[in-house]
């Protein structure tokens, strides 16, 4: 085999590094614009011009053509650039990598439960072979020891092995799970100069990618809630965004419960990401709105009753509070107590890590 070496092209290396930085920045901006390609490119151009990121071989138009050539974006009917399925997957993959980038060694798992059964994770314990056990799970050492002991006990000079001598390793039971991720899309998610919507969307994107690539037998339902609750198709998650809404937590929990009960999996769980107390209650044809500074007992009690309903159906609720507002903390404490679930107050930067560690560990006996 022959190799040909040439001089290192520093200019080409710098151009490639700049391109990768621009792509990374573009995806970051894309996450903040809820998948709006044109808005992200406009912001990218402003930043690039301000800090001199465009070079002689790269400007906005060339960058657009590069994205189109790579299949990340395409022209819509109105001629505007929009994400392609490849671009949406790239966004989910980026979100997943960022969420997992700082996890410790004990973070990622593989949905293991606490019971033995059919699985791929070998345990040190062995048991007698029964018809139907996988042959690759046979413990050669233990099987041979059993054959030797039996032969010697029977006074045999030749060692023979029968089916009764076979021993197999125990395996850890792997199970599936149905998860409902409830994302608060009320206006408070972007109030007071703090963007809580972007990290919440990023978590949803990462969770979609995680389940589709690593846990394809799991079910994930994403529910956006504001004045009302609506299930969001997984392909629409990159475009999840806030609006001029209140917070109808009861409607979100009720929808999640009904959806999860329709799934075949006995393992069901709800993740709730919110930054505000419940302020909406639908009671038949009437709708109650209350955005006052204190908790409204009627709205809160109806929401807590839904939490109790979830508990009776064996559906734990894990709440992630992205603010430490006292009224929200008070409500979540009551919800967690009545549902016997879990609650976390987390900074925006740690939201994904907390949720993903909890998702991977939260596997219950089927």
- List the uncertain runs: 104-120
Q: Could you give the distance between the termini?
A: 57 Å
Oligomer: single chain
Profile the largest sheet. 6 strands, mixed
Q: Averaging pLDDT over every residue, what do you get?
A: 86
**What is the string of helix and strand elements?**
HHHEEHEHEEHEEHEEEHEHEH
Write out the strand line-up for the largest beta sheet, numbering strands in chain order: 7-6-5-8-11-12
Radius of gyration over all CA atoms, rounded? 27 Å
Helix content: 40-55%
Shape: flat
Number of strands: 12
Q: Briefly note the structural class of the backbone.
A: alpha/beta
How many helix segments? 10
The proportion of strand residues reads: 15-25%
Descriptive notes:
With 366 residues, the chain is of the alpha/beta class. It has helices at 10-32, 37-51, 60-69, 85-100, 140-153, 197-214, 249-261, 297-312, 326-339, 351-361, and strands at residues 73-75, 81-83, 112-128, 167-174, 178-184, 219-225, 229-232, 268-274, 280-283, 286-289, 317-321, 342-345. The strands form four sheets. A six-stranded mixed β-sheet has the order 7-6-5-8-11-12, sandwiched between helices. Strands 1-2 form a two-stranded antiparallel sheet. A two-stranded antiparallel ribbon has the order 3-4.
């Amino acid at each position: 085999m022959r190799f040909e070496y040439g001089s290192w092209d520093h200019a080409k290396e710098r151009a490639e590094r700049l391109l990768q930085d621009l792509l990374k920045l573009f995806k970051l901006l894309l996450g903040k614009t809820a998948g709006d390609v044109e808005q992200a490119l406009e912001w990218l151009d402003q930043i690039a011009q301000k800090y001199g990121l465009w070079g002689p071989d790269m400007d906005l138009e060339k960058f657009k053509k590069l994205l189109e050539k790579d299949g990340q974006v395409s022209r819509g009917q109105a001629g505007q650039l929009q994400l392609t399925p490849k671009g949406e997957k790239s966004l989910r993959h980026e979100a997943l990598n960022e969420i997992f980038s700082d996890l410790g060694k004990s973070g990622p798992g593989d949905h293991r439960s606490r019971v033995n059964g059919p699985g791929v994770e070998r345990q040190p314990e062995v048991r007698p072979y029964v018809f139907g056990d996988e042959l690759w799970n046979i413990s050669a050492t233990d099987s041979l020891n059993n054959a030797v002991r039996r032969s010697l006990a029977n006074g045999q000079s030749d060692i023979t092995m029968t089916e009764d001598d076979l021993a197999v390793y125990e395996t850890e039971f792997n199970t599936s799970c149905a998860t409902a991720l409830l994302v608060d899309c009320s206006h408070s998610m972007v109030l007071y100069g703090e963007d809580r919507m972007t990290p919440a969307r990023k978590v949803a994107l990462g969770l979609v990618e995680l389940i589709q690539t690593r846990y394809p037998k799991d079910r994930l339902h994403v529910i956006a809630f504001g004045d009302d609750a609506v299930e969001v198709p997984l392909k629409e998650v990159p475009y999840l965004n806030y609006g001029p809404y209140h917070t109808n937590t009861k409607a979100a929990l009720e929808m999640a419960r009904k959806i999860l009960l329709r799934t075949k999996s006995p393992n069901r769980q709800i993740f709730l990401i919110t930054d505000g107390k419940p302020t909406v209650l639908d009671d038949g044809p009437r709708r109650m709105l209350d955005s006052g500074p204190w908790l409204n007992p009627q709205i809160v009690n109806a929401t807590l009753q839904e939490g109790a309903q979830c508990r009776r159906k064996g559906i734990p609720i894990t709440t992630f509070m992205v603010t430490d507002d006292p009224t929200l903390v008070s409500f979540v404490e009551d919800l967690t107590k009545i549902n016997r679930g879990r609650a976390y107050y987390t900074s925006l930067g740690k939201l994904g890590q907390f949720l993903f560690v909890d998702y991977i560990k939260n596997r219950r006996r089927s």
